[in-house]
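> @MW can you paste both from yesterday?
MW: sure, first one:
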Amino acid sequence: MSFAGCASPPGPDGVISRQPWLDLEVPGERITTRHYHILTTAQDQRVVAELPAFLEASLERHRLFAGTNLGQPALPSPPGRMQLFLFANREQWARFTRATIDASAHPLLAIEVGGYAAGGRAVMFALPPAFDRLTLKIAAHEGWHQYVQRSFREPLPTWADELIAVMAEGFLVDATGNYRFEPLLNPERLDQLQSVLEMGRWQPLETILAGDPTDLLGTEPSRAVDYYAQLWALGLYLAVEQSRWLGVQRLLRDAARGRLNREVGGAGDDLGERAFRRYVSTDIRRIDEGYLAFARALVDEASAANASGSMPRYGSVPSTILRTAGPATLEP
């Protein structure tokens, strides 16, 4: 197998080449893989060694979210290598953001843990080594956004874009050392969902369909985290019933092919709700009720299992939930 413009194929870690890189007078490294240019000033941190293989595995998973076509992923390969910036700390990340994005960057600077994707580039910062797993989850989340920005002919409704992004976060490393992506394996979203329900911050589905996390970051940052938790639960709920999930998959394929706006009657402020009604269900009230009941059951069973000591809190979920939401693993 050969790669255009590269002197050698990737090694076992997915790396094709490493070169010095300098940005904002901070020395760093440019790591090239089959589908990415990783530009980082965190080259001395452990997570950077994992990132090339993780990103390639995550991209492969992204392309399977809409199923397969004749044995191949239904979603397209990106048209070229994508850039992911990983800065050593938040200060460097903020400097880069101010230097490369106009006044619209203000809400982004409210991000305390995370990153963003803009213009097909993912921009994030490494967390302390004890949180390497979370850094990788952020890379999967923002990696989905940059993939859509680079590869889809039309943008997704915000709720659909963010729903897949949070479902892309959960992963484990199997016995063979390979990454396995499981939407259910997301303890941070589960914890936040529990907080949302216990503190009475649950938002109705119509509000979620019209929401935008960037707007929330600029006004109520804490609500943005709630929004992501509710979308994670919504994704799992939609995946429980095949007909609903097939609708989500059709939405993704139509956006990738440039057919979405035609199907929903064009862009507009109510695009999110129109897309949901067209592809998932016209009975938003029924979905809202079932989705809330599902979220409560998810949290209740996890809490009961934790109290009994029958499962670890991090990196796992109760086996009955795994069975109930099995289709959420989205196997082709």
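MW: second:
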Amino acid sequence: MYFVLNNKSSYCILKGGFSPRNDLALYMKNIVLIDGNALMYRSYHGVRNGFIPLFDGKPIGMVYGFASTILHIIDFFRPDGLFFTFDTKEKTFRHDMDDAYKAHREKAPDDFYDQIPYVFEFLEAFHVPVLTCPGYESDDIIATIALQSPKGSQVKIVSGDLDFLQLVSEKIVLVKLNGKVEQSVLYGPKETKARYGITPLQMIDLKALMGDSSDNYKGIEGIGPKTASQLLQQYGTIEGIYDHLTELKSSLQEKFRSHREYVFHCRDLARLRTDVPVEFSFDNAFDFISDDLSTFFQKMAFRSLEQRYQKLINKITHEVVGGSHKKGNDSCEVVQASLFE
């Protein structure tokens, strides 16, 4: 893990010593991509009973839960690079493709939206990249970043959304949040096949066949995950199924014939875009040790988070420093060690 000890410096901690930030991509081996919208909803619903912190008399449990989870993620995964992605209020290309896309979703409660500015204030204090792109979803931005990550890096996508299974590889894993961060399930190609019986790339066709109620498209009516998986195991792709349509029982043949155009439409909706025109760089470190973040915790009266944050700084500094210090040209203290050696 490489991090900045002085966030006012234009330099960062790198293996081997003091180097300009624009060399960081060479050392960014452990990249964590966080689905910001999914984490906000998880935090909102996770901190609604019992202890609910207030700020100016209004509940800010979502902000507390969001920040708490990020500290857990950093402690558990020790990322070199940390990126957050969010949806925007504009409709996306999927809405242009299908007027019914997500049309049934209800608006979140007002107190959810009231807390969003504080979530972004937290991220600004943390000096982490926050990426959005009108016309695209947060998922598409993550897909784009993941596939463009530096050679030799490992990418962890933190989300509860199984749509990301179509991306997993030996390089990319999905961290499906489940209770505590350390209890999350990590999905790579083997785990995906063990659960669904198919490869990650086939997950796109699986979703097209069975539909997605949360996104409001139906796939082929009457085909569930078990049948869809069996068909893809046997024929590989939707095209392969149609090439062998006469081998199916008559009831399935009729369903596929009547849904031919629609099922390919569903597949276009299910496929994550990997060419989002969003500006980002792997040359930017995040400032783990930030006075601004301490100020934010103090402002929000998140005393327990401030204590955890300081303990985590001490813990990581102790692990990384290992007694090796060097002073840079601008008196920024530099650690010449890596957690991953």
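> thanks! Residues 11-194+274-335 form a domain with the Rossmann fold fold (CATH 3.40.50.1010).
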